[in-house]
Structures are given as structure tokens and as C-alpha cells.
Amino acid sequence: MREISYSLTFFLFLVSFATSSASSPQCHTNEITEKIVQQRDLFNKAIKEADADAIAAILSESVILVTGSDSVLFTGKQAQLDIWQSDFDKGDERDIYLRTTQCVTISNLGFLAMEYGEWKGSRGDNLLFSGSYSAKWRFNNASQSWLLEAEIYMTDFVK
Question: Rounded to two decimals, what is the model's pTM?
Fold first, then answer.
């Protein structure tokens, strides 16, 4: 448990440092950013269609998720697949999350990127939650695709 606490503290420090030391992200528009937005669109589609296999194809093995309201930390692909499957098992009573990319910044290293955007959680036609998020992506040579490494969410609105 202490290891997770240290990991979360370090992760939050990095996010805080990155956001406070940079004035604002320089958004890029190119073939790489288009591929990342396509991956985000595939993730959104997989959530809507309750397709855990499609989600698995987008997540890195060591992916990190920090939730919006209560900052619960989920570490690893299987942990995240378990929460998605638990949500999918609710059928029509489940929440659908839609993330909308506003900006993608590509690292000078070329194989890392940050995505910034807004998210919404709804059930049917009812908006329940919304906020902002940041996500880190890494190009995976084996799969020749961009994989999600980390996401951190902040909730701005709760119905």
C-alpha cells in the first residue's frame, strides 16, 4: 500500500510540476496528433459499445488512471479492464463517458505525447458529470500504435 501511495504522490507531483511550470501547451496538428485523436475516438466508441477488447488494445500494460472526483488510482491494464467490465455489466444503467480532445502536444523525442481535453459522463440523455483531463500516450513499436500510459481526470460538474 505504501508503494502505491509513493507512486501516486510522485505522479501527482509530476502532473502538478508540468502544469505549473508550463504556460500553456503548444498544440500540434499533424499525422501523429491525428493518430492519437483516432485512438481516443476508438476508446470512446469502445465505451459506448461496451467493448473491453477494443479498450485493451489501446491501453499499455502499466497504464495509470486517476479518477475525477475522488482521485482513486488504478494501476495496470487489468485493473482498468476490470472497472470497465464492471461498468459494462450494469447494462442500460451504466454511465457512458465521452472524452473530447482539445489539444495534443508531441514531445521533441517523437514517441511521447500529451492530450488535453474535456470529458462528460451521462446515462441516457442525462448529463451526470463533466470535467477536464490530461492523458499521456507512447508510441509502441511492437504494435505500431499509440498506447495510453496515463490519464488524470478532474470533475467540474456533478448533477
Answer: 0.84
Measured distance CA(134)–CA(20) in Å, rounded = 14
Segments making up each domain of the chain, as ranges: 2-158
Identify the three-state secondary structure at position 26: coil
Rg (CA), the chain: 15
What pLDDT digit, counting tens, does each position of 105-148 carry?
Answer: 999 998 999 999 999 999 999 999 999 999 999 999 999 999 99
- The residue written with cell numbers 480532445 in the block is 101
Q: Which fold has domain 2-158?
A: Nuclear Transport Factor 2; Chain: A, (3.10.450)
Burial class (CB in 10 A: 0-12, 13-18, 19+), 108: exposed
Provide the grid cell at 29. 496538428
Q: How many angstroms separate the CA atoms of 105 and 123, rounded?
A: 31
